[in-house]
Write a structure and sequence with these properties.
With 84 residues, the chain is mainly alpha-helical. It has two helices and no strands. It is elongated.
């Protein structure tokens, strides 16, 4: 029975060693391929285009559009009518 446990532990260590070695080789190969791609095929820098239109200016803080106020008031009124 003792040799069976020893064989099991030996097999486990051997298997874990193979998996660990494979993963290390995979990481090294992936890093190497990535560096090769970046060296021979660098990413193109994105072109910065000038703005054709000026940014819209925000409304002053104290003003509210009358149409917007009417729409919000109507929506609140409808919601309260449905809730009751």
């Amino acid at each position: 029975m003792n040799t069976l446990v020893e064989d099991g532990l030996g097999l486990m260590i051997l298997g874990m060693g193979f998996v660990f070695t494979f993963l290390v080789i995979l990481i090294v190969a992936t890093s190497y391929m990535s560096s090769l791609l970046n060296k021979y095929f660098p990413e193109a820098e994105p072109e910065i285009q000038a703005k054709k239109f000026a940014a819209p200016t925000p409304a002053p803080a104290g003003t509210v559009d009358a149409t917007l106020t009417a729409v919000i008031t109507a929506a609140i009124h409808q919601h309260r009518a449905k809730s009751q």
